[in-house]
Amino acid sequence: VVTDYDSSIQPTATKPIVLGFSQLGSESTWREANTTSIKEAAKEANITLIMTNAEQDQKKQFEAIRSFIRRDVDIIAIAPVVQTGWEGILKEARAADIPVIIIDRSLHVNDSSLYVTFIGSNFYEEGVKASKYMIDRMRHQPGKIRIAELQGTVSSTPSINRGLGFWQMLEAHPRFQITQSKPGNFTQSGGKQAMQEFLRQPRKDWPQVLFAHNDDMAIGAIEAIQEVGLKPGSDIIIISVDGTRRAFEQMVQGHINAVVECNPLLGPLVMQAAKEIMAGRTLPKRMITPEDIFTQELAARELENRKY
Ligand code: GYE
C-alpha cells in the first residue's frame, strides 16, 4: 500500500484544544459553581484546561495571562475581576495571535476587537429586577423607605451595573432612598461586616430594606441582623442576587424575600465557543444567559431544582 500520508501532520481534530483560563477568585458560592462548571465542561469537551485563581487581584490575572502566552495555549479565557485596565494585556495576547474570550464579567476597552466574545449575564437587568420587586413589595408601606445596599467588589461590572439598574428604577420613586451603601467584596464575611457597620448607626436610621449584590453577602448580613435581635425577612426585607441553593434555603426559612438569578454555569457555552473559534467560525460579540427572579412563595418548590 502506497500512501503519501505524513505522520508528522496530525489532523487538528484529534489534537485537544488547550485553553488557559484566568479565574478571578474563589470569593463566593457562585464562583465555586462557575469554576466547577468550567472544569466539567472542559473534560466533557476534551479540552485541556489550564486554570489559575487570581484571588481577586488583577495583577495576578496579568501574570496568569502572560504564563498562558508563554505556554502558547490555543485560546485564553478571562473572568475579569474589575472592568478597566485590560487594554495592554489584551494587546499582548493579540501580538501572540491567541484569541481571547471574556466570561462572566465584562470589561471596558476602546478596541472591542481585542476579544472575540463576551459570555455572561446582564447585570443591569438584574438590578432592575431587584428594584421592581422591592417597589412592589413595599407599596403598602407609606413614607420614606430606607434602603441599605451591600455592593460587591469595587469597580467590578456586576457591582457597578447591579447598582445602576437598581438605583435608576428608584428615580421615579423618590420616597425610596439608599441611605447606606458599602462594598462587601462579594464575600459572606464582607457582607456581615458591612451590615454590622450599618447597624451601628442610631436605630432610627436602620434600613427597612437590604439590597445585597450577591447571596453570600446577604447570608453574612442575616447573621449581623440576627445579632441585634431583628428578624431578617420581616424587620428588614432582603433581596439578593445569584440564586444559590444556600439562598433558596434562607428564602424557605423566611430570611430572604427575593433572589434574582445569575447563572454561573457557563462551562458548556465557553467550550462551545472555544471549539467554534478553533474551527474558524465567527461568534456573536455577546452571549447572554437567560435568568429569572424567585420569591419566597416558590422557594420551597424550586429548591430541589437548584443546580448550584
Ligand atoms: O454575582 C458573585 C460573584 O461576577 C456574576 O461574582 C459574578 C459575581 C456573582 O462573586 O457572587
From TrEMBL:
Task: List each copy of the Periplasmic binding protein domain by range.
Answer: 21-281
Q: What is this protein called?
A: Simple sugar transport system substrate-binding protein
Main location, first listed in the record: other
Cell compartments where the protein resides? Cell envelope
Task: Name the domain of life this protein comes from.
Answer: Bacteria
Q: What family classification does the UniProt entry report for this protein?
A: Belongs to the bacterial solute-binding protein 2 family.
Organism per entry: Paenibacillus hunanensis
Q: Which UniProt keywords apply?
A: Signal, Sugar transport, Transport
Q: Per UniProt, what is one Pfam family of this protein?
A: Peripla_BP_4
